[in-house]
Amino acid sequence: MSARTRPFDALLFDFDGTLSRLTIDFSRLRRKITALAEAFLGEEPEPSDLPVLEWIGVIAGEIALMDEELGKQFHTRGRLIIQATELDAARDAELFPDTRPLLAGLRAAGVKTGILTRNSTAAVKAVFPDVAACCDAFLAREDTPNVKPHPDHALLVLKRLDVAPEQALLVGDHPIDIETARRAGLAAAAVTCGHSQREALAVARPDFIASDCRALVTELAQLALLPGM
């Protein structure tokens, strides 16, 4: 638990699993990428624990060593598979009921808000069409050359908010979000309403952990870490 006493000027949120219920079948997605890679390589690629986006990049690099143009084609087709999978999932997804009221309450209290996601803008807007109007900065996958856990993703959001890293808290449902916060110099909060179990999140040592964003904001307000709340 954090010993912080100075209030946060901004809260940054992950999207899928943190503000919304967007269930992507990652096992099925990996099978599709494996089949695509086999068509290019002539054999199945080595299994990897990397996130799918990064895995596609690695495979594309291997293919490019044999044929640079084929490597580019694989990379493009792999990203299109991800996009189609996200949009399929978005059709059955929904915002958590507290998402809009929570963001509005933070804004009314003078706390800046940002949303950063590895998902595409199209997938997010299928679930949350007014996302840009409900937060102060929104950066999806195509809005940054380096997606989280690269620190640039969070730092670009903070630049748009005009907030220093030490004055912000990043909230997410996956250890990647905690890693992103650490690498970018932000405080980290984990919520257990998404894809990761509490035990896995605790191992990543976030500064705060709560059942969902509403419970987290309530705790932060009780600790006097949110101005105006």
Automatic annotation (TrEMBL):
UniProt pathway annotation: Organic acid metabolism; glycolate biosynthesis; glycolate from 2-phosphoglycolate: step 1/1
GO CC, alphabetical: cytosol
InterPro entries attached to this UniProt entry: HAD-like_hydrolase_sf (IPR050155), HAD-like_sf (IPR036412), HAD-SF_hydro_IA (IPR006439), HAD_sf (IPR023214), PGP-like_dom2 (IPR023198)
SUPFAM superfamilies linked: HAD-like
GO biological process: DNA repair
Record EC number: 3.1.3.18
Signal peptide: none
Highest taxon, organism lineage: Bacteria
GO molecular function annotations of the record: phosphoglycolate phosphatase activity
Reaction(s) catalysed by this chain's protein: 2-phosphoglycolate + H2O = glycolate + phosphate
EC supergroup of this enzyme: hydrolase
PANTHER family hit by this protein: PHOSPHOGLYCOLATE PHOSPHATASE (PTHR43434:SF1)
NCBIfam families in alphabetical order: HAD-SF-IA-v1, HAD-SF-IA-v3
Family recorded in the similarity comment: Belongs to the HAD-like hydrolase superfamily. CbbY/CbbZ/Gph/YieH family.
Protein name (record): phosphoglycolate phosphatase
